[in-house]
Amino acid sequence: MRTEYLLYFVKTVDIGSINKAANALFISPQGLSQAIQKLEQEVGTPLFFRDGNKLELSAAGKEAYDFSIEILEKTSHMIKSLSKYRKAAEINENQLTILSAPIITSTFLPSVLAKLRKEFPDINLLIEETDPHGVLEHFVQTPNAISIFSMPELEMENLLKDKPQALNFSELFRSPLMAAVSVNSNAVHKDVIKLNEFQNYPIVLFGVEDRLLNHLMLDTDLLEIAFRSSNLEICRHMIATDERSIGFTNSLPEKYIKNADIKTIPLSPSVDMVTGFLISPDFEKAPPAQALIKIMREEIERKEFN
Questions:
Q1: What is the CATH number of domain 93-172+274-303?
Q2: For 83-134, where are the alpha helices, taking DSSP H only?
Q3: Helix or strand or coil: residue 149?
Q4: Which pLDDT tens digits describe the chain residue by residue (306 residues)?
Q5: Domains 3-84 and 178-270 belong to one CATH topology
Q6: 94 burial type by CB count under 10 A (0-12 exposed, 13-18 middle, 19+ buried)
Q7: H-state helical runs in the chain
């Protein structure tokens, strides 16, 4: 049973609305509903009585709510309590585990790892793609790792509030979130695109970008999601070849997957995307980790992100 499902369930009960809870959790209402349905399947009974948009806890739901609160509190306490043992964990200097958001894996990471290989030709690299919002949960199972991810500034601030003290966060760079359209789009001559204008276009989403829609307070019921893929190049190809479509971008794809058929346009209001990494202080002392951090910072300077 995934603890994030319990968190979603508790938040939905506390707020009393799927749509409002989804906004608070930065996920889509559909994703939240699916998570609750999976939780109900696991426990084998409905947790809510549903009447249109109204939600009412069933008897099982009331009991599940109490259990969920207890489990989440104990999980949080466990993470904080066990973090002190990280420094005692054996660090294998011939292995480096990287927890990477899909946008990082598709753009920034390959050139960085190529340089790391030259310094450590025998290193065993393990790359795990992960949703940035689940990064703290992954660190419980993989303490000797470095996680590289990118998310909107406000979401990053909320994530770091729950960060165990035994983990260090370092910002690498930040860049504005922008709209991406075909050079043949009617929107190509706009100086800015207002967020509420997204409802006028079919939207192309990469990976878990549907969280962005909630973060940007866009009403998903009014939006047309035309295409979504975990392949960034395919998403950008769809935007480039469909003059009606619109998508999101920032400096990462623009630096590594430049497409002359795509025009980037600032958003209004503006939203900063923050890219950085989490690592334990002890693992940060390992030579491969030190080298990776140095190479990442050199890559940022070389590509002139800041």
A1: 3.40.190.10
A2: 102-105, 109-119
A3: strand
A4: 778 888 889 989 988 888 888 776 767 788 788 889 999 999 999 999 877 767 889 999 999 999 999 998 888 778 667 655 554 455 566 788 899 988 899 899 999 999 999 999 988 888 888 877 777 777 666 667 899 999 888 888 888 887 777 788 999 999 999 999 999 999 999 999 999 899 999 999 887 666 777 778 777 778 898 988 878 889 999 999 999 999 999 888 888 887 889 999 999 999 999 999 999 887 888 899 999 999 999 999 998 875
A5: no
A6: exposed
A7: 3-15, 18-25, 29-43, 59-82, 102-105, 109-119, 135-141, 153-161, 210-215, 232-241, 251-256, 287-303
Please state which CATH class domain 3-84 belongs to: mainly alpha
Q: Which of 49, 85, 42 lies closest to 67, judged by CA? A: 42
How is domain 178-270 classified at the CATH fold level? D-Maltodextrin-Binding Protein; domain 2 (3.40.190)
